[in-house]
Design goal:
Largest sheet: 2 strands, antiparallel
Radius of gyration: 20 Å
Mean pLDDT: 85
Oligomer: single chain
Strand order of the largest sheet: 1-2
Number of helices: 4
Amino acid sequence: MPQRPLKPVLQLVSILLLAGLSLALWAAWLGWDQHRDVHPDGSTTGPYEAWQVIGLGLTLLAPVYWAASRSYTAGAVFGTTAGLTAAAYADWSDDASGLFGVGVGLVMLGSLAVTAAVSAIASAIRRSGPPDIDGTSLPYNNGSGGPLQT
């Protein structure tokens, strides 16, 4: 009986893992701050501070880069996007104005664009391989993981 390749299963697992990680990181960085700040002039800001959103983005860079550099691009892009979109929906769905849908859509589009860009960079770095002694890159054979023997 021929053995089926595990690549599709591993891609699905990477999507689920990165979606779960994205949900957990949203909760860790943004889930605990739910009140708006009222300023002396009556204007309000929040509920999130800039450092929280930047922290979430920087924390997500590592797993997205790791997954994409190991050819789990679907997990890096779709898993992270799905996790952040679900977290934003769950966090904002009680908004009385109904505009939360616009925000959730923007989170989805933004995370899709950023994770696709990070994945493209990670894949390009992986393909170029490590630099040689003189600073040039060795040619790599896609699939073998090692330098081409000439």
